[in-house]
Specification:
Strand 15 and strand 16 (275-280) form a beta hairpin. The strands form six sheets. Strands 3-2-1-18 form a four-stranded mixed β-sheet, with helices on one face. Strands 4-5-6 form a three-stranded mixed β-sheet, with helices on both faces. The chain is of the alpha/beta class and 327 residues long. The chain has a single domain, classed as L-arginine/glycine Amidinotransferase, Chain A (5-stranded Propeller), CATH 3.75.10.10. It is built from ten helices and 18 strands.
Length: 327
């Protein structure tokens, strides 16, 4: 599984669907999705998957230059339900179809969500590896050199993969991504959807380097978990035996919806070809985060786009996008 900063043939997105998912903010979510698509399209082709009846709306709102592909779809979080692309180093491209089991009850859309990864790979006529593991794409981050990071709170939760212990989950992750070393963090974001995925608290930004979310308020629910994750990263070694260079970025202020914390994080970003698309949350920490990301990617143009509306749907830029590696 190549790193996200390696060259892409394009980006996949999915058209947001259903007010029950987006907390009656569906119109704002559609506008935010279109803005993210338009920004990424400056650097690489973008294709938006949508339900059959939404094709005209998606084309109209996204505008020219964004391809729309109708496929049965239940949600707009394509990183959750889409495939994980893998390469063989000789021009071959294939996809891993992970099992999908949503945390919340969504029986009306579950079947379409669970089948989207396979349908997308069939649309691309790519080989399919069906992994016997419940996993969302944002639950892992890889460096393309054999190292993978995940959180225990997400992948080792017995509700996700009952009957599988740490050793067995680690073996499956390595088998289906080509990783040789798995670094386990503890917990993800407080109240984080899907048990606290890694993309809300940390991500690889280059081989041997990780961007990690931090919190400086001991009274904050994220304080202990983010500090523990930072300690684990600082003592870890990657697949090549290197100590990790850990770069920190401060979390935005807490925001809630109906008493549940929104998973607002600057590690939920998209690395496009020659560009970065990162979130802004109308928070004083936005500017500091922008400077940090710009220092990390001096050869890429950094774009900070409003992401609070998609945060209201417990989503983020990384969760709404899926990179397809070039052959």
């Amino acid at each position: 599984m190549p790193a996200e900063w390696e060259y892409h043939s394009g980006c996949w997105m999915a058209w947001p669907y259903g007010p029950e998912t987006w907390n009656d903010e569906i119109e704002n979510a559609l506008a935010s999705c279109a803005l993210i698509a338009q920004t990424i399209a400056r650097y690489e082709p973008v294709t938006v998957v949508c339900a059959q009846g939404d094709a005209s709306e998606a084309s109209l709102i996204c505008g020219p230059g964004i391809k729309v592909v109708p496929l049965p779809l239940g949600d707009g979080r394509i990183r959750d339900v889409g495939p994980g692309f893998v390469v063989d180093g000789h021009g071959g491209l294939a996809g891993v179809h992970w099992r999908f089991a949503p945390w919340e009850e969504r029986p009306a859309t579950f079947a379409d969500d669970a089948a989207l990864g396979r349908r997308l790979l069939e649309h691309l006529t790519l080989p399919i590896y069906a992994a016997p593991l419940v996993l969302e794409g944002g639950a892992i981050t890889v460096d393309g050199e054999g190292t993978l990071i995940a959180t225990e709170s997400c992948l080792l939760d017995p509700r996700r993969n009952p009957g599988l212990d740490r050793r067995e989950v680690t073996a499956l992750l390595c088998a289906y991504t080509g990783a040789r070393t798995v670094i386990w963090l503890g917990e993800g974001y407080e109240d984080g959807p899907d048990g606290g995925r890694v993309d809300e608290v940390a991500c690889f930004v280059r081989p041997g380097a990780v961007l990690a979310l931090t919190c400086d308020d001991p009274a904050d629910g994220n304080y202990d978990r983010l500090r523990d994750n930072l300690d684990r990263l600082k003592t870890a070694r990657d697949a090549r035996g290197r100590a990790l260079d850990v770069i920190t970025v401060r979390q935005p202020a807490r925001q809630e919806l109906d008493g549940v914390r929104l998973p607002l994080s600057y590690t939920s970003l998209y690395l496009a070809n020659d560009g970065v698309v990162m979130p802004a949350f109308e928070d004083p920490a936005d500017r500091e985060a922008f400077r940090t990301i710009r220092r990390l990617f001096p050869d890429r143009e950094v774009n900070q786009v409003p992401a609070l509306d998609i945060g209201l749907g417990a989503s983020g830029i990384h969760r709404m996008t899926l990179h397809q590696p070039a052959r």
